[in-house]
Amino acid sequence: MESVGTKLKSWLCWSWTYICALWFAMVLTMVYVLRSPLKLQETVNAASVFLNTLTPKFYVALTGTSSLISGLILIFEWWYFRKYGTSFIEQVSVSHLRPLLGGVENSSSVGLFSSVNGDTDCYFLFLSECKVWRNPLNLFRGAEYSRYTWVTGKEPLTYYDMNLSAQDHQTFFLGDTQQLRPEDSVMQKAWRERNPQARIRAAYQAIELNRECAAAYVLLAEEEATTITEAERLFKQALKSGRKLSHCHTYIATGKDTNLVVYIKRRLAMCARKLGRIKEAVKMMRDLMKEFPLLGMLNIHENLLEALLELQAYADVQAVLAKYDDISLPKSATICYTSALLKARAVSDKFSPEAASRRGLSTAEMNAVEAIHRAVEFNPHVPKYLLEMKSLILPPEHILKRGDSEAVAYAFFHLQHWKRAEGALNLLHCTWEGTFRIIPYPLEKGHLFYPYPGCTETADRELLPSFHEVSVYPKKELPFFILFTAGLCSFCAMLAMLTHQFPELMGVFVKAVSICIVLPQDACSSVLLTARVPNKFKISLNDFIFCYLYID
């Protein structure tokens, strides 16, 4: 039954175009047959008389109004394109008009990715790259994000980003026991609160119910603590409570209790890193990765890489990259650009573009350039932040891999490491744009990675604050309707100006054009030659008519 319905629907979609053409032909035939009863000739003549009686002021008002309306449409279209990255008229046409005309959803994207690798696995890999990930190096709300708000008056986090964090905390921290603990119920509501003060009050309420509620101390450390030192103290209290809970016989220790302990230890390591105790932070991160090897999705190795780069322990950084920069593991900007930094550091201090153009690139320089091209292909937004061609903002709590949000998060923490390597930024500046000559265009397939996903712009606009100009790759061409409305607005404005300056000439021109459209060419010629034109315009008008109306 379903196959019959599908065939019927496909047949209707196929025949819809021909039905519309047949209907249009029938309407034209009916108009032609009924031209005498409908008195079409008299109607046309009456319209001609009406047009002849119109004054130039009418045409000025008409063209001026058309210019105003098309200008307003142009402004709205441009604003919508800047905000959402697409044309409003085009979106409405595709979403609402196309289904009415029998259109179907474009399924060519699956075939596109199937043609690259021979199956649809790449397509599902493409979809997975549009997943939003927790930022491994996210800042503390109370000690860092809130201080930015106090100073600038701007909110660095979007509601969408904070809502994702609330969902993460509910999923990651709350126990799996069949009978939900009272303090867990309070914390479940606390994470959902939009008001920070309401969340803090709920955390204190949970502590009143259970002095060993680790999740409540985590919330206070994240949001109430105004310094890193105070946040570290609260995290230590949360770790102490979490360990007591895991050894308690009243409740069965669950996987989510373990997740809470892992989160607390990681944040303690980040506190140590921010307070300058970098070796202690590295040890805590290594112990955490050794104790919980299956929690690789938390990307603790990215925290470790940043701390090792701060210590300038490049051999240890290379050892971590050798383990995680594997073809079977998901990539990130941290892995790709750190690998490029290590290879660039080996040659950047002696690199000169002039010398390289004369003698060619050495093997080590070629490896460095290829590593930069690989990193730029993975995330093309990063170089502009590293080269300080775009201003940095505080990184969001969630990032989209290969998107602008990931680029902001990487450059915020790693720009100092690139500056420390002498000549590394110079090498990046000289070579990063060469990546785009390697990537096939249009972006139907990648060079070293799968095609660049098209969903990044929409997700990045949700993750990044409104005052930040989102970086878009590949650059989108202006939609047709923006160009069309711009041309229409300019044309109508030009007609309004000419009609206002030369009313008699434009009146004769409009009458001449309307007569040429309605009457045959011979009659049009006689009318034009006998037209009453002011003497000062007669020569130029005749030349104009001869050039534009009588030359085939």
TrEMBL record:
<dbReference type="InterPro" id="IPR007311">
    <property type="entry name" value="ST7"/>
</dbReference>
<dbReference type="InterPro" id="IPR011990">
    <property type="entry name" value="TPR-like_helical_dom_sf"/>
</dbReference>
<feature type="transmembrane region" description="Helical">
    <location>
        <begin position="480"/>
        <end position="502"/>
    </location>
</feature>
<keyword id="KW-0812">Transmembrane</keyword>
<feature type="transmembrane region" description="Helical">
    <location>
        <begin position="58"/>
        <end position="81"/>
    </location>
</feature>
<dbReference type="GO" id="GO:0016020">
    <property type="term" value="C:membrane"/>
</dbReference>
<keyword id="KW-1133">Transmembrane helix</keyword>
<keyword id="KW-0472">Membrane</keyword>
<feature type="transmembrane region" description="Helical">
    <location>
        <begin position="12"/>
        <end position="34"/>
    </location>
</feature>
<protein>
    <submittedName>
        <fullName>Suppressor of tumorigenicity 7 protein-like</fullName>
    </submittedName>
</protein>
<comment type="similarity">
    <text>Belongs to the ST7 family.</text>
</comment>
<dbReference type="Pfam" id="PF04184">
    <property type="entry name" value="ST7"/>
</dbReference>
